[in-house]
Amino acid sequence: MAKDPVCGKEIDVEAVRSGGSRTAEGVAVVDPLQGTRSLHNGTWYYFCSIECRKDFMGTPEKYGGGEATYSRPYDRPSSS
Ligand SMILES: [Zn+2]
User: Fold this and answer.
1) Three-state DSSP state, 36
2) Distance, CA 9 to ligand 1 centroid (Å)?
3) Of 21, 35, 57, 78, which is least packed with CB atoms within 10 Å of its CB?
4) Looking at the domain assignment, is residue 80 inside a domain?
5) In sequence order, what are the residues at sequence separation of 6 or more whose Cβ sits closer than 8 angstroms to the Cβ of residue 34?
6) Per-residue pLDDT at 65 exceeds 50
7) Among 23, 64, 24, 73, which residue's Cα sits nearest to residue 43?
8) What average pLDDT does the segment 20-45 reach?
9) pLDDT value for 50
10) What does the DSSP 8-state code read for residue 22?
């Protein structure tokens, strides 16, 4: 089981994986804009709804997901 970091609801990951790849809204769960799971800072996060996902992606640091680094690509360290 995973936990929705926004509302705290338990997410049945196995059901998500086996029960098709669409949300109740009919979009792919991994859809970068509308899906209900998201890879952030190397960790998969699961959400009960698109609304929770939106909240998380808007302010991931608020939910323990670290900074929203994706929104500031120009801040990436140039270690090359
Ligand atoms: Zn939720």
Assistant:
1) coil
2) 6
3) 78
4) no
5) 23, 25, 27, 28, 50
6) yes
7) 64
8) 77
9) 86
10) B
Give a yes or no: residue 29 inside a domain: yes
Query: The domain containing residue 61 runs over which residues?
Result: 2-74
79, part of any domain: no
Is this structure's pTM higher than 0.85? no
Task: Classify 30 in phi/psi space as left (phi over 0), alpha (psi -120 to 50) or beta.
Answer: alpha
Residue 34 belongs to a domain? yes
* 38 CA → ligand 1 middle, Å: 13
Rounded to the nearest angstrom, the distance between the alpha carbon of 65 and the centre of ligand 1 is 15
Q: What is the mean pLDDT of the chain?
A: 77
Per-residue model confidence (pLDDT) at position 4:
94
Helix (H, G, I), strand (E, B) or coil at 74: helix
The rounded Å distance from CA 74 to ligand 1 centre is: 31
